Structures are given as structure tokens and as C-alpha cells.
Amino acid sequence: MAISEPAVLTRGLTKTFRGRPAVHGLDLEVPRGGVFALLGPNGAGKTTTIKLLLNLLQPSAGEMRVLGLDAVADSVAVRRRVGYQAESQHFYRNTGVGELLSFCRSLYPRWNQERVDRYCRLFELPARARVGGLSKGKQTLLALVLAVGPEPELLLLDEPATGLDPLRRRQVLKLLVEEMSKEGRTIIFSSHQLQDVERIADRVAFLLRGGLILSRPLEQLLAEEKKVRVLFPGPPPAELEKWPGVRRVAREGSRLLISLSGRLDEVLVRLQRYEGAAFDVLDQTLEDIFVEYAGGEESVWEVGEDD
Amino acid sequence: MWFRVEPGRGVPIYVQVMEQIRRAAASGLLAPGEQLPPVRELALQLSINPNTISRAYQELEHEGVVYTLRGRGTFVAAPASTLTKRERLHRLDEAVEKLFVEAYQLRCTPGEVLSAVEKKVREKNGPGG
């Protein structure tokens, strides 16, 4: 139980369903402490990864360590220290909210009832309501309350704010801000709400087709990923695509749009050597960066396929 | 204390918070010596990561806009009084550097830059200044 071990470490993690890989050779490292956002288009493998970490699914190949433990061999010990909120809820529909809460309370040696009561009031989850009678959004909120109740070292939240109105979403964010303040706690959550992610994540990882394509501190990501629009007076430099930090060069009529990953200053110095070149640096939002990495121009993204 | 936080603006949130505190301090809306909200309290109120607020406070302290008293909190500094002459000149130099980048991109001549600066100094100093 070395405290220095990361919260999550996977090596070559693979899960295939009927021969189709949902997670494919995933090397993921989540440091202890802080908020880690797992991003990716639908079908990228986020939910499968979370279920694998909890041993709710068994890996086809690869290794996983959670809180310094083997996620398969020590899965019972892992579950005791991890709070989990599933993407879709499978509660006993006829159980009362209060009944379900006391049942869960009895399962854990530690349970913060004061906090659970406060969140139930905040989310308007009455103890006497039947779980099956709650709206889908409220069932998600209940699952969230159940996940944080035992004050786990690691929170695994699969789309905690999906299907919620802006007020509830904001309340969920406040809950996460409050929960993340506990010393040494790690929160991993998946989300499509990239503006929420920008508000609370310390680190973000992009998954695409079951693999990791990027994992970086959020501030660093926003600082490094830039676009530079350039108009060269003559033909552009032949080796432009090989310049440091250049990920991609797209044509915009007579202009070029350079996608950069770091090295902005170096690229600007080089551009200044071209007499008469006009250029502008464009900031990008997390959503811009996500779209760019998840498919960009090639549009391997699912838009269109689903329609 | 409320600050406008706009994720998806392409500007890091800590920078957005810094801008607003800096402006409030410069305009006198935040008085010198006034205490800023504790990091966790402000993070909860704005629904953002506490590390983001800490970063904003640290950078503002570095700029001399606020100061921190250990165990007591973060306070608004008196304008520029906390900076040594060397620090002031260093930060002026950084601002001039930015001016030159802009001037370069606008293809201004050195003469144009100088006369623009001189004109601004005359304006700010008033007639006969």
C-alpha cells in the first residue's frame, strides 16, 4: 500500500467483446489526489475502463493496479476503498430512498451520514420516496450520494452530470469541489460536459477507440495547444510540417492554419524571420482541442454516423 | 464574492479570476488591506477547482496585487507599494516587450513606436507636463 503508487495504473489493458476491442492496449496513469477527467467520444472505452478497474468486467489482457492493489486479485479490497457511480442505475425500484441509504450505510465501516443527509436535502431526495419513482436525473444524483457516503479514497464517477438541468449540474459541481478538498482523495470522472470539465479538472485524458491519445494537466493542455494562422507573402516554407510543435497544417485558401502542441515561442521566432509574413495566435477551448484530437478534419467522430 | 467564470473562452479560468481581482483592486472596489475569500470558500461559490483559485492568488501575489499572511489569509495590497524599484522596472520591461511584439506585428517603425509612447506620456502628464 505504498502511498506513492498512483491511484490507477494500467498497462496494456485490453477488453474485447466478441472479438471487438472496447479497450485496446490502454496505458493509463492517474496520480493520487486531484480530479482526473476521462474524455472521449461515445464508444471510446470510458465506461468499459471504469468497469474494468472495479472488476465488474474482467480484462482480456493487461494489468491494472488501483490504489496500489491488483485490481483483479484484490478486487474486494479495492471495492472497499472506492466509491462508484454507474452511468445507468440498476437500483431495486421498489426500495425506499431511506431504506437504500441505511442498507449501504451498513455495508461500510465508515459512512458520513451528516454529509449524506445534506446532499439528500440539496438534491431533494426524500427518504420516503420510492427509488423507482424518482426521475432518471434524481436516480443519478442518488447514486452519486451513495458513492460519496463511505468517504472513499477514490471516486469513480461515470458521467455524474448527464441528463441534469443547469441548476442540478451546478450542484453536482459544488459537491465535487467539496469532495475533492479531502486530503489525498482522487476523483476520476467521465463527462461530455467539457465546460464543466474546464471548471474542475486538474488533469484530462482523451480516449479514442479504446486507447489513450493524450493525458496532461488541464492548464498545461490549454497553454500548449494553440493554432496559428499565417499568410506567407510567397510559397510557405517546405519543411513547415516538421517544425517543432507542429501537429498539423491545414489550408484556408491562401492562408495556413497551423495546429501547435507546445513550442509556440519557437514557432513565432521562426515566423518572424519571414519578411512580410502575417500571423495571429488563436487560443483554443477544451472543446476545440477535444474535437481536434477526436477526429478533426478527418471526422472519424460519430457525428453523422448516428443520424 | 462573485466573479464571472466563463469556461470555453479559451482563457484559463485562473487568468479570468486574476483579471477581475486586478481590475477591482485598481478601481478601488477592493480596498487595500481588504481580505479576499478563503480559497475553498471561493472555489465552492464559483464551482471551480480550489487549485485554480490558489493559482490565481499566487500569481496575483507575485504581481504584488495581493499579499498573504500565513494562517490568516489573502489581502489586497496597496497599489505598487509592495514592489521594489527593481521589480517595478522589471514588470515595466515586460510590458514594453509586449508593446514591441504588437508593434512588430503592425510593422511599425521604431520612430512610430517612440512618438506614440511620447505622446501618451504627454497626455497622462497633462498640459505642461
- Which architecture of the largest domain in chain A does the CATH hierarchy give at level 2? 3-Layer(aba) Sandwich
Q: What is the alpha-carbon Rg of chain A in Å?
A: 22 Å
Oligomer: heterodimer
- Rg of chain B, nearest Å: 18 Å
Describe this structure in words.
- The complex is a heterodimer of chains A (307) and B (129).
- In chain A, the strands form three sheets. Chain A has a six-stranded mixed sheet with strand order 6-7-8-3-9-10, sandwiched between helices.
- Chain A has 307 residues and is of the alpha/beta class.
- Residues 299-307 of chain A have low confidence and may be disordered.
- The longest helix of chain A has 15 residues, at 166-180.
- Chain A folds into two domains: 8-200, P-loop containing nucleotide triphosphate hydrolases (Rossmann fold), CATH 3.40.50; 223-298, Alpha-Beta Plaits.
- In chain A, strand 4 and strand 5 form a beta hairpin.
- Chain A is built from ten helices and 14 strands.
- In chain B, strands 1-2 form a two-stranded antiparallel sheet.
- Chain B has five helices and two strands, in the order H-H-H-E-E-H-H.
- Chain B has 129 residues and is mainly alpha-helical.
- Helix content of chain B is 57%, strand content 6%.
- Chain A binds chain B through residues 34-35, 170, 173-174, 177-178, 180-181, 194-196, 198-202, 219, 222-223, 272, 278-279, 282-288, and chain B through 5, 7-14, 40, 43-44, 47-51, 55, 104-105.
- Chain A: Residues 8-234 form the ABC transporter domain.
